[in-house]
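Good day; I would like, with your permission, to put a structural problem before you. What I wish to show you is a protein chain and, alongside it, a tokenised description of its three-dimensional fold. I would ask you to consider whether the tokens describe a fold that such a sequence might reasonably adopt. You will find the record immediately after this paragraph:
***
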Amino acid sequence: MGMMDKLKQMLKGHPDQAGKAVDKGGDYIDQRTQGKYSGHVDTAQDRLKDQFGRGDQGPGEPRQ
């Protein structure tokens, strides 16, 4: 079982916590790289949130 599979299994059913963790990790990377790769980081955050269950989606917001 790969690392992503283990993460998915642990975070299954907890999209809010997963979304917060992805945001925090992305903010850390942006800080360390001084925002140089912020576009790439944002794309990666969106893809991870999609895989983990979209933790930042409020009511009435469509999925992308």
